[in-house]
Amino acid sequence: MATKGSKQDSTKGTEGTLGELLRVPGGEPVDLGAYDAGGTPGGPGDKATGLAATALMGEELASLQERLWAAGSAGDRRRLLLVLQGMDTSGKGGTVKHVIGLFNPSGCRITAFKAPTHEELSHSFLWRIKRALPQPGEIGIFDRSLPHSRLRSTGGTPIEDILIARVHELVSRAQLTARYNQINGFEKSLADDGVTVVKCFLHISYDQQRRRLLERLDNPDKHWRFNAGDIDERALWPAYQEAYEIALERCSVGAPWYLIPADRKWYRNWAVSRLLLEHLEALDPQYPKADFDVAEYRRRLLAT
Amino acid sequence: MATKGSKQDSTKGTEGTLGELLRVPGGEPVDLGAYDAGGTPGGPGDKATGLAATALMGEELASLQERLWAAGSAGDRRRLLLVLQGMDTSGKGGTVKHVIGLFNPSGCRITAFKAPTHEELSHSFLWRIKRALPQPGEIGIFDRSLPHSRLRSTGGTPIEDILIARVHELVSRAQLTARYNQINGFEKSLADDGVTVVKCFLHISYDQQRRRLLERLDNPDKHWRFNAGDIDERALWPAYQEAYEIALERCSVGAPWYLIPADRKWYRNWAVSRLLLEHLEALDPQYPKADFDVAEYRRRLLAT
Q: What is the pLDDT of residues A66-95, one digit of tens each?
């Protein structure tokens, strides 16, 4: 599936940040076919190096997370929200396991959106999203917990809801446009409130999805991860790709989408880790200064 | 602080499970002074071996967690709840970071109880506890997020609330007895609903607490972890120890308390990991069998 003239030139990696290399230019038509799902733009040259590099980032990530948390405890309202999207089997769960697993679980707030409750349905579609946001100092993760085949009657993240609605023609185009605008407005308000949103689209190829579904069928320990509707939904691949293309184009106004080639799991994990690292380094959270007389408390402690 | 004739004889380790070695006999008076906080009962002989053994357990723990989660997705209602208690600086946060960090964060539900909301205060003290319980297939963790000095006006886990109430004489002894009974009844109902509760008391010595508080004062990056009330609360050490002794005695009726010597962090992490491993192995969750025709879906997939 290597694509000649891929939009993401791997030789660019050393010049700037990975974010610059992977970000989707907002407002321009997106052609997913022009992005090589098996590529490793800006990444280590092979799997062994990639795995080692990701493991090495773990300590830096956890250290920056602690500083973010510490700053949050002293009134800094900043936090980070990772949004994971992608076709079934694109590796959202694996990313949480391997990348979020590098952080201190205490400071992570993972939300896998399931069928909305009665209470949630009585509010705007953004209501439950707002309730799941990371608090100051936290790292939030938004995932959908259900395959596309079961989302139609339930609901996922706002973008997934739009995708499903578009693919299955559940709402009018005018309604879709209104939703994109609502999401963009919402993301703007998040930025104003100190939430850095890192949106990752995990891009896999049609062939890779077949291989991953086959793995789930050929290993009895993975049967529980296979859903009877997965193959019907796979038949809608072109419609989904088009829906993602439009969402990536329309919703890169505030926080950009990052397009992560995800056929290689080691690259996917490396790239998401690296993007989080770049964003946390840019936030540069600081340990708060003591608001008490350290020497005095030291003296009192030593007297005990 | 090595105690001759410690209640936890480290030579017993090879005979049975760690749970048998560390569990507090319910209904008998507990003398915390008889337990060596610096001991390593049943554990590896030194720090390097202990760290390696804990890291090695990580894979088994994550694998059992995946099976628990998979079984939960197919209707198995079982789950596990780790409750962490202990004096300030006993290492609850470090245990979450290093032990829960071994699991897949997706399947963990960590609750650090803070000041109750207005809604929570309008209900029974168990109401918010029930809402924070792990769902089937999940691993839940209950921690208090505030130091003792700030819990008095806020609230933590039910046991902490009782401790504070007892140490500061906020309620009558009759009320305390009623609370112990309510907690025991609640734990019984949890067991009936498939929740395995693993309660760990992290036992540190008075000297070790001084060292850890001093570390927080002597390192500017740790000032944020020091609370001005910590030293006042430390003056109540004997009253807290007594309150813990009574709670350990009264609330080992259903799920037992495990008394974890916690002066050595590496042993504490090893012991909690080992206890979780023993409980998960006893649950022995199984991957669910496919409820669809695997061959038929395989054929359909290969046609795409």
A: 999 999 999 999 999 999 999 999 999 999
Average pLDDT over chain A, rounded to an integer: 89
Q: Which two tokens stand for residue A291?
A: 């608001």
Q: A163-172, A189-198, A262-271 — which is least confidently predicted?
A: A163-172
C-alpha distance from residue A87 to each of A202, A264, B220, B302 (Å) = 8, 15, 46, 18
Please tell me whether the overall predicted TM-score, pTM, comes out greater than 0.90 for this model. Answer: yes
**How high is the pLDDT of residue B13?**
47
Contacts of B210 in chain A (CB under 8 A): 301-302, 304
ipTM: 0.89
Residues from A in contact with B at Cβ < 8 Å: 70, 73-74, 93, 96-97, 100-101, 103-106, 108, 110, 112, 143, 210, 213-214, 217-218, 220-221, 223-226, 228, 231, 234-235, 287-290, 292, 294, 297-298, 300-302, 304
Amino acid residing at B101: G
- Are B74 and A224 an interchain contact pair (Cβ–Cβ within 8 Å)? yes
In chain B, domain spans: 18-302
Q: Judging by beta carbons within 10 Å of its beta carbon (0-12, 13-18, 19+), is residue B291 exposed, middle or buried?
A: exposed
Alpha helix (H) ranges present in chain B? Answer: 18-22, 47-73, 92-98, 118-121, 127-131, 148-151, 158-167, 173-192, 206-218, 230-234, 237-250, 265-283, 294-302
Of all residues in chain A, the one with the smallest CA distance to B287 is A221
Asked if A35 and A6 count as a contact pair (C-beta separation under 8 A), the reply is yes
User: Tens digits of per-residue pLDDT, B127-148?
Assistant: 888 889 999 999 999 987 566 6
Beta bridge pairs of residue B196: B80
Contacts of A173 (CB under 8 A, 6+ apart): none
How many CB atoms lie under 10 A from the CB of residue B246? Answer: 17
Q: Sheet with A108-113: list strands edge to edge.
A: A108-113, A139-144, A79-86, A195-203, A257-261
CATH of A18-302, one of 1.10.3210.10, 3.40.50.300, 3.40.50.1970, 2.20.25.90: 3.40.50.300
- Can you read off the two tokens belonging to residue B285? 């969750």
On the question of pLDDT at B19 being above 50, the answer is: yes
Highest mean pLDDT among A20-29, A154-163, B166-175: A20-29
**Beta strands at A195-203 and A108-113: parallel, antiparallel or unpaired:** unpaired
Cα separation, B7 vs B41, in Å, equals 10
Whether pLDDT at A149 is above 60: yes
Query: Would the CA dihedral through A19, B104, A226, B136 be positive or negative?
Result: negative
Q: How far from A291 is each of A184, B176, B228, CA to CA, in Å?
A: 39, 36, 9
Q: Which residues in chain B are closer than 8 Å to A234, comparing Cβ atoms?
A: 301, 304
